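Hi R.,

As promised on Friday, here is the backbone we talked about, encoded as structure tokens. Could you run it through your design pipeline when you get a chance and send me back a sequence?
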């Protein structure tokens, strides 16, 4: 009876793994194991099964014969005149992994060279050396009792055990979606990682819109976490195609809600999410009572106001159901209060499957030095090597402006509206604009109290702070305080560092930098502030590039050095993205030239490398990291608070009233 106890003890961790997977996948699953080794996976009330077109793969090899009353041995048939080899040698074991495992034991390890394994109604007579060469479970069992003759494994199906034995002897196994469950169960119970990986590779290869839910359920039942995650991603990325299959309407309320709540759900638009939710609700009249609960996961605030009126409002339920109507009213109020949107941000205002990307704003290109740029570009990494693409245009031309990102919006402040190097202060501006990447719109906000250029704009605690002017650089610390470094003060470059305490509205002096610098950049990455580039005075009083990079640690209030710049630049743009720093463009004093170079710093290796150049050499360019809609396809740009925008809004109102003349939205 000892072997039985061993088998049950090995099964327990598998149950723990399944429980962990159930919690990880967020969609409740119910697993029912039947005596024939078939696993039926239920989700809530409805069962989701694979359709009849499920594929299968097999390698031509003899199937293991189950021993009956005589318990036939699992062995190769001898050739005529040749004696049967009852103890397989290491050369006959298939696969390098099996050979390595077999090297741990020899033919003399087990006094009794064969063992009879019982699985429910069938038994298999196999060589101990062969089965232990692939199974950690058997190695541990036989290490404790090398003379064991019989082992009961009632938790395994005969087919699953037969596939394990086939794999042990031949290194290959027959697989199909109908039998993969019992094979994966046997591989997990008997601790055969090579076979388990073969099962996972097979499931991944069979993944499509018809089989994705079935494969997800099988993977969850047997703790195949990589397959679970792959199936989940597949459904999220192909949800529109999946919605055309019968499996979609069989989803439970919990499953449908989980999909609609997921930030990774990839859809053409949020209107599509609404239409799919209505399709699921209309399939079964008993689901209508859950309409408000399900539709609360639709991000109506990310749908343009014109589409709310033309696509959402005409649906009867959105007007007759008070709770659903409230969702529509809240979304319309969000659009009607643009100046309060930063305080109304929530999960329902965020774009699904969004991507963080690097963007550049304005600047003075070298090819049109007298003309300033209105271009806002974004870095598209999709096509192998990244490329720079047009995103939008600034409301007005500018350079040496400052930018900040807060609540998903891009804020652009100050700068110069004309190129006059001899009198920059004369052309400084105090304007402040906000860009909404969800709708590709600009909103003009209240101007700053002073005109500023070459200053610092920092976001902290839901507020924007404009600091200094004509060359000072600041960065927001993890605590929310703002660190201001260096600058060109009284005709001299400065090493000074000060910290602004937002909560107490006070300034504190910090340890000075090692190198004085001005026209430099700073950014926060990994809880530290990196001060990069700029210029200083050389031995002869001439302006020279600063190549050193200094790093400030807020915890110890100390400075350290990082790898120096390969190319010195001033008035460049600096921003973190994906745990790296990007330094864009700028002026190189040594060559007296504008630069298009993009320099990338990796703190993990403390090294700089060159990335994709800007479209043209540019100085006075700003850059930041902004969250954009997926596979960015910009809408027609609009500017609020302008005559053209007001005219367009009037046209939209006329068009909207003609679409649904008898329906209005009221609280």
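Update: got your reply. Pasting your designed sequence below so it's all in one thread:
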């Amino acid at each position: 009876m000892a072997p039985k106890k061993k088998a049950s003890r090995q099964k327990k961790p598998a149950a723990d793994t399944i429980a962990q997977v159930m919690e990880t996948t967020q969609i409740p699953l119910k697993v029912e194991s039947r005596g024939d080794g078939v696993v039926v996976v239920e989700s809530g009330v409805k069962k989701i099964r694979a359709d009849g077109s499920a594929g299968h793969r097999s390698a031509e090899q003899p199937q293991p014969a189950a021993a009956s009353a005589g318990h036939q041995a699992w062995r190769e048939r001898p050739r005529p005149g040749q004696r049967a080899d009852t103890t397989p040698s290491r050369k006959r074991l298939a696969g390098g992994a099996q050979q390595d495992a077999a090297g741990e034991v020899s033919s003399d390890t087990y006094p009794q060279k064969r063992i009879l394994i019982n699985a429910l109604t069938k038994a298999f007579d196999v060589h101990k050396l062969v089965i232990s060469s692939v199974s950690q479970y058997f190695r541990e069992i036989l290490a404790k009792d090398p003379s064991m003759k019989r082992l009961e494994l009632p938790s395994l199906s005969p087919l699953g055990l037969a596939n394990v034995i086939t794999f042990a002897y031949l290194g290959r196994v027959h697989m199909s979606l109908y039998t993969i469950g019992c094979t994966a169960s046997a591989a997990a119970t008997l601790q055969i990682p090579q076979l388990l990986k073969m099962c996972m590779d097979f499931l991944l290869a069979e993944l499509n819109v018809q089989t994705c839910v079935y494969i997800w359920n099988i993977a969850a039942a047997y703790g195949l976490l990589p397959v679970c995650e792959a199936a989940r991603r597949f459904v999220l990325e192909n949800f529109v195609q999946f919605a055309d299959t019968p499996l979609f309407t069989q989803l439970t309320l919990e499953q449908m809600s989980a999909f609609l709540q997921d930030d990774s759900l990839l859809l053409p638009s949020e209107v599509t999410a609404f239409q799919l939710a209505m399709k699921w609700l209309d399939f079964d009249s008993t689901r209508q009572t859950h309409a408000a609960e399900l539709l609360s996961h639709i991000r109506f605030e990310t749908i343009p106001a014109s589409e709310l009126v033309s696509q959402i409002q005409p649906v009867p339920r959105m007007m007759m159901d008070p709770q659903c109507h409230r969702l529509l009213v809240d979304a319309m109020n969000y659009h009607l209060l643009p100046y309060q949107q930063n305080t109304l941000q929530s999960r329902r205002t965020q774009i699904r499957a969004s991507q963080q990307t690097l963007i550049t704003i304005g600047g003075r290109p070298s090819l049109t030095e007298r003309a300033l740029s209105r271009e806002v570009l974004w870095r598209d990494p999709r096509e192998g090597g990244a490329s720079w693409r047009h995103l939008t245009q600034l409301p007005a031309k500018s350079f040496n402006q400052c930018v900040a990102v807060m609540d998903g919006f891009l804020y652009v402040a100050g700068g110069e509206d004309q190129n006059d190097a001899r009198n920059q202060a004369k052309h400084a501006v105090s304007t402040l604009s906000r860009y909404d990447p969800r709708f590709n719109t600009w909103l003009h906000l209240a101007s700053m109290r002073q005109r500023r250029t070459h200053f610092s704009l920092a976001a902290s605690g839901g507020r924007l702070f404009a600091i200094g002017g004509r060359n000072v650089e600041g960065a927001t610390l993890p605590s929310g305080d703002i660190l201001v470094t260096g600058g060109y003060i009284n005709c001299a470059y400065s090493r000074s560092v000060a910290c602004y305490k937002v909560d107490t509205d006070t300034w504190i002096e910090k340890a000075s930098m090692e190198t004085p610098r001005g026209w430099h950049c700073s950014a926060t990455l990994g809880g530290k502030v990196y001060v990069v580039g700029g210029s200083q005075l050389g031995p002869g009083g001439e302006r020279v590039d600063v190549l050193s990079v200094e790093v400030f640690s807020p915890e110890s209030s100390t400075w350290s050095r990082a790898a120096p710049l390969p190319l010195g630049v001033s008035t460049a743009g600096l921003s973190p993205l994906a745990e790296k720093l990007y330094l864009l463009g700028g002026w190189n004093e040594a060559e007296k030239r504008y630069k298009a170079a993009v320099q990338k710093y990796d703190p993990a290796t403390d090294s700089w490398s060159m990335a994709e150049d800007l479209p043209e050499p540019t100085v006075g360019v700003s850059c930041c990291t902004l969250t954009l809609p997926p596979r960015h396809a910009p809408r027609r740009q609009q500017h609020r608070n302008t005559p053209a925008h007001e005219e367009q809004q009037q046209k939209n109102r006329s068009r909207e009233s003609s679409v649904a003349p008898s329906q209005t939205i009221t609280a």
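One thing I noticed while checking it: The chain has three domains: 2-78+86-239, 267-351+651-659, 355-628.

Thanks again,
M.
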